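thought: fold this chain, then report.
action: predict
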Amino acid sequence: MKSLKNANVKGKTVLVRADFNVFPVKPHELRIEKTIPTIKYLLSNNAKVILLTHIEENNGRIPSSKILLPYLKKSLPMKKITLFENLRKFPGEKKNSPKFAKYLASLGDIYVNEAFPASHREHASIVLLPKLLPSYMGFRFEEEIKNLSKVFNPKHPTTLILGGGKVETKLPILKKLLPKFDHALIGGVLLNFFIFGRKPLFSKKLVLPDQVIASGKKVLDVGPESFSAWGKIVKESKFIVWNGPLGYLEKGHVAGTKKLISILSKAKAQVIIGGGDTLACLPPGKKLPKNIFVSTGGGAMLEYLVHKTLPGIEALNK
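observation:
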């Protein structure tokens, strides 16, 4: 890994590709807070910092990165930092335009990728820009790789907990990850696929909840009676990976997810939790036990676990 500690940043202008894709911004935003040590390190070494980030379109409009300023000012000396406009305002970003990447490269001397959650995307600031400048991983990015790589040689028994939406995305990933785990507890939209879609369980490793809360032909949450059997599996596990909430968060069904957080907080296993919606259910500002690592990635986390690399990592290595 190309560590930032090995870079000479003194007096240099450093482009920090962050992932501050949070809208609206709430207190204790993990993706922002975990990037701050890298930024402070650069400033302490007399580097000029230009922050690059994207914020997704919201209700048909692309927000300005200015919405981040009130939050960033609480932790950083923003007079010493340049916050670049939302990358999504430039078509060249998502189109992976070489011309746009060259423009960004002209703004700085060094590139630092601190956007692990976006590093599965082949966008200009992720895969083209690092090829044009001396490029390094940020401290948080390194931490993500170090912890997620434990999946490749874990202590058994191992358990995968997979929830959230997007069956078309989660189902192929479930099939690819399953060989690495002894059990897979299923929640979220995948339950509709197996229960109401009457799809057969394709592996004995799959464990559906004993009880679900449903409306019509839609599962809303995992019922409380499920946690007797699930709790036993968690208790016996030595390594657990969880991605995606168990319930329909948009409709306020968070009980199952919060119950699982409580159970995992008492587990003795090494636990990795990821996924933006999952993170939103964690107690804000509360310190979790040391055996729990919270990844800032959702799709990027799963892609890394499947492929052992990401487009953003490959770009840093070239």
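thought: worth noting. The chain has two domains: 4-140, 154-282.
final: tokens above.
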